[in-house]
Amino acid sequence: MRQTEPTGSTAPTGSTGPAEPESTDYDVVVLGAGPVGENVADRTRAAGLTTAIVESELVGGECSYWACMPSKALLRPVLARADARRTPGLSRSAQGPLDVSAVLAHRDEYTSHWKDDGQVQWLRSVGVELHRGVGRITGPRTVTVTAGDGTRHVLTARHAVAVCTGSRALLPPLPGLADVAPWTSREATSAKAVPGRLVVVGGGVVATEMATAWQALGSRVTLLVRGKGLLSRMEPFAGELVAEALTEAGADLRTGTSATSVTRENGTVVVVTDTGERIEADEILFATGRAPRTDDIGLETVGLEPGSWLTVDDTLRVTGQDWLYAVGDVNRRALLTHQGKYQARIAGAAIAARAAGEPVAAEAWGAHAATADHDAVPQVVFTDPEAGSVGLSLAEAEQAGHRVRAVDLDLSSVAGAGLYGEDYKGRARMVVDLESETLRGVTFVGPGVGELIHSATVAVVAQVPVARLWHAVPSYPTISEAWLRLLEAYRDSA
């Protein structure tokens, strides 16, 4: 790093003009200190590049404080109690309510009480310089940071600027919605009390997970889903099983229903649906999509559209720019923390290779190519039952023109499922490419299946032939025996 002489950091005697901003040179400047930005910075520092990171909120970002960490802290006791209720010897004692104060206290501890001291210390330990404030691109390879006190600092990148600013909740254009103070994912994961009645608008991951959590914590949840069912990006049976469980838990699920107006009257939220029905609640959560946090980061100064998703190649470099990278949610390839961190590792390695003048391995599955973004993205939804998938669904594989066969399995037939109790409900599907006899996609739904997804991910990414999978013997009695039963079903259906 080279810091220029801050000759204009204070106004000369007698001058009434503003102070000239301090200026510092780095090899790499990262906009956004969430998990994605942290990983880009970590990889470039590990390669010996001087790196600065800019953050206007908390170091650790959305995942640490308002998404992955708090939501899973809320859901873990819910799923543990559900497992206990299915287990002989525990089922009777697990019928009581959850200790809400203990659950919320653990959530608060898991998010470090919304303080980022530990994350800041980690940045320092790897040699990344943190700049607190709002960062805006002000020209090629240049970022200007405006601190809370109004002072500015110009950061110049010799090699790369990485935009890792993530995404924000997208609210529908309903008149007067701002006056209602609706919940987004942030409020849903950080709320200090359980709402007596909660309306959840949406049918995706955030909607189903938060409906699961707050229903179990004592709220009366009403789900308004515009489409035909839940989790529409997964195999249809995933949403069906989650919907069945939510309904059994007491949630009111209404599909094919949209909110047309929302008002707050004397503290009560009033929702009118497209069927003319009036629903009253204490809070309303909109889980209706995401938008990129790129509206005020200076994209227009380098010829890009403010507020847009950024198009990148597989090395995560922005189209038409040889110095600008967009990593994580902002490129819309896969809005998942783990996938963003994967991209960050790829981008960090690509930036380092280009800085050193080394060859860039951008071919499929190369060291500098985020190939998994295309057809090997894993995801787990922490509902009861859990739903996990990787790769393509049957419909997606067929739409892509692949000749495939789906193999289905009732997971209750697996010996390990019996350990969860007699009423275990779950399904699995394996989508086999009939030309290569490798897996295009795998889906598991059922209690305890989240830990199965990585084995499926390895099979899809490595393109392991079905004939070789026969030799990957699952331990008995575990739910992973589902692999053997799926392979047997494929063989028997040939």
UniProtKB/TrEMBL annotation:
Coiled coil: none annotated. Its EC number is 1.-.-.-. Its cofactor is FAD. Residues 1-19 have a biased composition (Low complexity). Residues 377-483 form the Pyridine nucleotide-disulphide oxidoreductase dimerisation domain. Keywords: FAD, Flavoprotein, NAD, Oxidoreductase. InterPro entries: Class-I_Pyr_Nuc-Dis_Oxidored (IPR050151), FAD/NAD-bd_sf (IPR036188), FAD/NAD-binding_dom (IPR023753), FAD/NAD-linked_Rdtase_dimer_sf (IPR016156), Pyr_nuc-diS_OxRdtase (IPR001100), Pyr_nucl-diS_OxRdtase_dimer (IPR004099). Pfam families: Pyr_redox_2, Pyr_redox_dim. Residues 1-23 are annotated as: Disordered. One of its GO terms (molecular function) is oxidoreductase activity. It is an enzyme of class 1 (oxidoreductase). Residues 26-339 form the FAD/NAD(P)-binding domain. SUPFAM superfamilies: FAD/NAD(P)-binding domain (SSF51905), FAD/NAD-linked reductases, dimerisation (C-terminal) domain (SSF55424). The keyword Oxidoreductase applies. Belongs to the class-I pyridine nucleotide-disulfide oxidoreductase family. This is NAD(P)/FAD-dependent oxidoreductase. It comes from Streptomyces cathayae.
